């Protein structure tokens, strides 16, 4: 099916471009979401007007995303969660296997690396979306690009894709619940 794209679609094309796609993809995805229109002779003649409308919509959504990104940069989200107890640095290390090289005589034993306390659960993009809504900012959880849920205490930087060209960074602090 030949369609005219109304918005930029990754790996497909730019607004105003005529592309040939599978019928099901057009009927079930592109057309219901107003990402494209069926390429008819009349629409082909008015392609310039359709392209201008699509660019105006795209520019408006980008401007809104930039404004929201500026607001997100100033936002600090603090979440309280239950977590494991911290492991002290003096905790005895597990015995080293015999195959490893022994430390030189008189050298102090290697201190174990400090272990960050882990959460009893995790902080997900849904939790972050709700925390932003509580502060008056509406961000869809699908736009929060959390590669995997946060499972440790501390400060975390989370990218938020607000628009194809706008990426904001959200600062999330996860603290121990009192």
Characteristic terms for this protein:
178 residues, alpha+beta, Ribosomal Protein L9, domain 2, 3-stranded mixed sheet, elongated
Can you tell me about this structure?
The chain is built from four helices and eight strands. It has 178 residues and is α+β, with helices and mostly antiparallel strands. The protein folds into two domains: 2-45, Ribosomal protein L9, N-terminal domain (Ribosomal Protein L9, domain 1, 3-Layer(aba) Sandwich); 61-87 and 115-178, Ribosomal Protein L9, domain 2. The strands form three sheets. The chain has a three-stranded antiparallel β-sheet with strand order 2-1-3, with no helix packed on it. A three-stranded mixed β-sheet has the order 4-8-7. Strand 7 (154-163) and strand 8 (166-176) form a beta hairpin. The longest helix has 27 residues, at 47-73.
